[in-house]
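During the first year of the project, the team set up a workflow for recording each protein of interest as an amino acid sequence followed immediately by a discrete structure-token representation. This format lets reviewers and collaborators read both layers of information side by side without switching files. As required by the reporting guidelines, we include two representative entries from the current panel. The first entry is reproduced here exactly as it appears in our internal archive.
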Amino acid sequence: MDRTKNEEFEELRPLLFSIAYRILGSVTEAEDAVQETWLRYTASPTPPASTKSFLSAVVTRISIDVLRSARVRREEYVGPWFPEPLLTDPYQDPERAAELADSLSMAALLLLERLSPLERAVFVLRDVFGFGFGEVAAAVGRSEAACRQLAVRARRHMDAGRPRFEARRTEREELAGRFLDAFRDGDVDGLRELLAADVQMVGDGGGKAPQFGSRIIGTENVVRVLDWSVSRFARIGGVMEPHQVNGQPGAIVRDRDGKVLSTWALDILDGRIQTIRAVNNPDKLGHVGVVADAWAAFHEATAPDRPAD
């Protein structure tokens, strides 16, 4: 194996994964796309003029093909579909850290779902990662003029529903910490004051994990569910571990053995939590850690109290 080729690929791996994940919304599929890119790179007989452009083009084409087939599966998905939660974006650019984090959010990735695979790829390459239209055109196999039109359409869709978040990341983190503390302590009033009037709580169980409902809307409805959950959560020794989820404040939900039950991602704006997105589908949590048996935990949490002897 050419040591230089291997080193160049490993240096670009974080970028390639980040491109693939934003196109696919799946950690496992993005990792597979990067691995397939490596195989094609090693099979290439001549070195490319630009390794970055070549590899980015290859991983983009692979991701577009995977996304086209994945869309059929998502149309048949049980309940709301969310991306697989990503705890850490491996691609680091300190000058654009906040922008990259916002493009990684659950809200932004769900907006990207509205785009065609080509529009999505063009938007990710051009607007998120700043590739020139020449590189974008080579990656998606379209003319530069066509890519400019794809970019215009993609931006129009994205701008129409672009998520807004609290400007200061420290304020988001502080409010999320207060929310998780209030949940842990069963502080109903504390929870209520942190939620927006039209707050939504949405869960992705894929038909494979317990759900409170596909979508719960309004402060009192969400507080009622959270309040009910607190005591049940304590029964299974549950832990809410604060963690960034898709670039936003959130938590990993674990059982008493440290196994993963869920991830929560919080959208925060104007000093209030606007949306709580929970990924409960065990098929989407394997890369986070050892996955708990969610149904067993649910049955334990909701079992009738035993009468005293």
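The second entry, processed by the same pipeline in the following quarter, appears below.
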Amino acid sequence: MKSMGTRDKLAAASGHRRVLFVVFAFATFLTFLYTTSHFATAPGSASASGSAAASTTTTSGSAGGGGQAGSGSGSGSGLPLPVFEALVHFASISNATHRMSDTDIRAISAVLRARAPCNLLVFGLGAESPLWLALNHGGRTVFLEENEFYVKYLEPRHPGMEAYDVSYTTKVRDFRDLLSAARASRRKECRPVQNLLFSECRLAINDLPNDLYDVPWDVVLIDGPSGWNPNSPGRMPSIFTTAVLARSGATAAKGRPTDVLVHDFQFEVEQVLSREFLCDENRVAGSGTQSLGHFVIQGGGAGDAFCSGQEESGEKTRRRRRK
């Protein structure tokens, strides 16, 4: 998501809402047709379907770890496939200002189709935010946004949207110094497995609502904060925090990997920080686009390395310093 001013964001949101109104009206109609057709052609299976649905709901509730949390299995999506595809189709051909490309929208949607309903964490609010909320119907979707006014503007206009403003202290111009400091503290403050609430790493986001650190996130989309000029906060904190969340606490304990999607992957900060903390060996080949990096992170792990080879290189550096 390219950075934009508040006025541009509000104009984009206004235009996009008109498109989404048509999309959701069409989706509702499709859902009605699908449901009517389904029950008309299979009345004898209603009892069995109800039992199966109840079983799935019970399983999802226990796996999700919370009242709003989804199962993350992808097998119990609340949206029928025709409705899901209709939403993606209309979003991908919309002419909303500052929207993602249709290829990026479809690549992200493919991941959500496989995992939804799930626990979805999105850094950044944009033209596609209502789409991600809709595609994860039945799961929990949380947005983290740098602009407090934008959160207050959009949240009431989209029922069910859960968004929080985040204060970032980093600057793009300092990203290499911040990266060097994180590497030097990888065995201490900036280690890959830790409780972020008490982290003193300069790249860690530790002031979110406390319960968000206890959610087992299944998918994380990094599309914020802004990074368009040297004074922008940049996505260093969101990438680092995601890397730690995926390896720690409830996310690591859920027994399933975390899909991490990094938008604007063609830019230096996104590439360098993703290689450092999300790791090339975790990147999914052939998934995503030139401007979208897709990583799959397994939870847990020991040591002070995010990626293979980091522990060894760190030890060599310490030996040189001792000499």
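For the second entry, the following points were noted during internal review. The radius of gyration is 21 Å. The first strand starts at residue 119 and ends at 123. Both points are flagged for discussion at the upcoming steering committee meeting.
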